[in-house]
UniProtKB/TrEMBL annotation:
Record's protein name: HPS1 biosis of lysosomal organelles complex 3 subunit 1
Segments for region (Disordered): 252-291
GO MF, any single term: guanyl-nucleotide exchange factor activity
UniProt organism field: Podarcis muralis
Entries under InterPro entries matching the protein: FUZ/MON1/HPS1_longin_1 (IPR043972), FUZ/MON1/HPS1_longin_2 (IPR043971), FUZ/MON1/HPS1_longin_3 (IPR043970), HPS1 (IPR026053)
Gene designation: HPS1
Cellular component GO terms held in the UniProt record: BLOC-3 complex
Domain FUZ/MON1/HPS1 first Longin: 2-154
Domain FUZ/MON1/HPS1 second Longin: 205-353
Length: 658
């Protein structure tokens, strides 16, 4: 039994996802007629009634004490609840079958927040506007948005269970240097330069292009003026691609039956829609047609190329800008193989200007909330003086197109820069909130409205899609097989006897190398078929969870004997030349901190920044290695093999991708 919920402070349901077991419990408790003989309550009303006491108590504690509970279990540990406040919205995850731990549920909430930021951008900084985006008044639009996030959550859950790269939250590359280099050159000359040199692109510029085979990265190219793509953003894009074109669709057909016909791909994708939960078996027709029972309303099928507005971090010449608007195009070549393009719109510089203004106002707003008395010296605050100059220029450039922003800014200046200083800190704080909301509203209108959905013309995308198909035609079957057997453990056994499995992760670039681990019933692996592959997979997933729990406590080395196996975990730092750097300790995290990973809070980027303080003159790189050996291998040999394995894997990680 699983459920994920986003609510406002007044217990309004902003989003929910629930599995059939949870829906059955709701129907059992609220599905019948009420005591007055009326109709059964709508689905959202039932969820609201069930969670309202918890939401009210949580927000009351936060209001009265400035703190609240983040996790609790019900009587007899039947149900586990994890809660987290993001802004003014409460995120809740529930598990009632014991299949998920506290870390799993908290990770699910952080991933959901990450997906919301990727789809709504800086609008998430204002809770009022964020609520309007997540829960629009139109029922069909609400069904589409909720269906989108429900499907992404389900896809992420499935990938975490089945795919090693999502288990450790790092991108796995297809190891083939020759083909990789050819594809990078092709992406540069035949894709990026072809589109950016076309007069039909209407100001849109392709900044990133990459090729995927299932969840594995074949090649990646960025234009000269593009900002580097963070590992967390790349992993988010892989998740979206898998949600649009699930790998399972291609696994049902042998390679010889893959059709090259465009119409077959179109039919394959048009049959896909965002997965929605089926209604309860005993639900009445009135319940199924209720406006609030949005999971019963299937959104329209996405377009063939799925152009989607996406917000990613960017380091520009002008400075850093989180959640910079991009347009994402996923062009399916064959089932399981896709070309992905990311374009930057001509108005992207406006997003950077809005972020700079928002960042400055948020800094001052935080000082006021923390009780710092900045009011007497407000006019002389260097930050606000600079903000005033930038804001005046920004409003002037809009040329009266946003009268609400202009009026709010004039009102703010009258309060903040008046000489009589009659306004209180509370009134000034409200003025900060209003100007922040108006800036987010301008951002929302520019980049989330219908006018922001225009992008590259379809005929240009069709040309690039066909060019890429022609390029990879002879490699197609090889790539599909290679994605299943990317790295084989057999090639390591002669040098490392007793080694069962390993995962090597370069956390600096967010990429990993690991032997293929097929545990599905219909797929054969080096371990054969039957229970053995699933058993080893369970050991690997358990080791990943164990390593994270110890890393959270500050341990960078773990060795443990697990039955007939010996498991190890190592985290270390190196400079650019490959020499190990001594780091005395890593931060110890609290139990309710952001989960360790890339999608949830980007732990490793913060860790690299933390460790760079003691090595200011060097480029610090971070690596992880997880190994599983047979238990008969002596401990000293296990440690020595881990060192030798890390040294051997250091070179293949330099396969060109960018």
């Amino acid at each position: 039994m699983k459920c994920v919920l986003i609510t406002s402070e007044v217990a309004e349901v902003l989003f929910y996802w629930a599995d059939p077991e949870f829906m059955a419990i709701l129907h059992q408790r609220f599905g019948g007629h009420d005591q007055g003989g009326g109709e059964a309550p709508a689905l959202e009303d039932s969820i609201n009634t069930l969670f309202a006491p918890m939401i009210i108590s949580c927000t009351t504690l936060l209001e009265k004490l400035g703190d609240t509970y983040t996790c609790f279990s019900s009587e007899n540990d039947e149900h586990l609840y994890v809660l987290h406040m993001f802004g003014e919205c409460l995120y809740i995850a529930v598990n009632g079958d014991g299949s998920e731990s506290e870390d799993d549920l908290r990770r699910k909430l952080y991933v959901l927040r990450r997906l919301a930021e990727a789809h709504f951008g800086l609008v998430t900084l204002d809770s009022h506007l964020f609520r309007r985006e997540l829960r629009p008044g139109d029922s069909e639009q609400r069904a589409h948005i909720w269906g989108l996030f429900q499907s992404l959550l389900q896809t992420h859950h499935q990938l975490r269970q089945d795919d090693q790269s999502f288990a450790v939250e790092a991108v796995e590359r297809l190891i083939h240097p020759q083909l990789c280099e050819q594809c990078i050159e092709f992406l540069e000359r035949q894709v990026v330069q072809h589109i950016n040199g076309s007069p039909e692109r209407a100001g849109h510029e392709v900044v990133h292009a990459f090729l995927l085979v299932h969840t594995k990265l074949l090649a990646f190219y960025s234009s000269r003026n593009a900002s580097s793509l963070r590992p967390a953003d790349l992993l988010t894009l892989l998740l979206i691609v898998q949600d649009l074109y699930p790998s399972s669709a291609s696994e049902e057909l042998p390679a010889s039956q893959f059709s090259e016909d465009e119409s077959s791909l179109q039919r394959l994708h048009s049959s896909e829609n965002i997965p929605m939960n089926s209604p309860c078996p005993h639900a009445s027709s009135q319940e199924q047609m209720a406006e609030d029972s949005l999971q019963f309303l299937a959104p329209p099928a996405p377009e063939a190329t799925n152009p989607r507005r996406i917000f990613l971090d960017a380091n520009l010449k002008e400075g850093y800008c989180p959640m910079m608007p991009h347009m994402m195009y996923c062009l399916p070549l064959w089932p399981g193989i896709s070309l992905v393009l990311l374009t930057k719109s001509p108005s992207s510089h406006v997003a950077h200007s809005i972020y700079q203004l928002l960042d400055g106002f948020l800094v001052l707003e935080k000082k006021l909330k923390d009780g710092q008395e900045i009011r007497p010296h407000l006019r002389s605050q260097p930050v606000l003086v600079e903000l005033r100059h930038r804001m005046d220029n920004f409003v002037r450039r809009l040329g009266g197109q946003e009268p609400q922003l202009q009026n709010t800014w004039l009102e703010f200046k009258n309060k903040a820069f008046s000489r009589n200083e009659t306004g209180s800190s509370c009134e000034l704080l409200q003025a900060f909130c209003r100007i922040r909301r108006q800036l987010c509203a301008v951002y929302r209108q520019l980049f989330l409205g219908s006018s922001g959905a225009q992008g590259l013309p379809q005929n240009l995308l069709d040309q690039v899609q066909q060019l890429t198909r022609d390029k990879l035609q002879d490699w197609r079957d090889f790539l599909l097989v290679k994605s299943k057997r990317n790295v084989t453990i057999v090639s390591y056994l002669e040098e490392f006897p007793g080694l069962v499995h390993f995962i090597y992760v370069d956390r600096t670039v967010g990429q990993m190398v690991a032997p293929s681990l097929g545990a599905a019933e219909d797929s054969a692996s080096e371990l054969g078929k039957g229970p053995l592959p699933a058993f080893i997979k369970q050991k690997v997933w358990s080791l990943v969870a164990l390593a994270r729990s110890y890393l959270q406590k500050g341990y960078t080395t773990v060795t443990v004997r697990d039955g007939d196996y010996y498991c190890t975990y190592f985290l270390w730092f190196e400079n650019e030349m490959g020499y190990r750097l001594e780091v005395t300790e890593v931060p110890v995290l609290s139990d309710d901190s952001a989960p360790i990973g890339t999608l949830a809070g980007d732990y490793y980027r913060k860790l690299l920044r933390y460790c760079s303080r003691t090595h200011a003159n060097e480029v610090v790189k971070c690596y992880e290695l997880l190994t599983i050996h047979l238990g008969v291998v002596p401990t000293e040999l296990v440690i020595q093999q881990a060192c030798d394995l890390a040294r051997r894997l250091w070179e293949p990680s330099r396969i060109p991708l960018l």
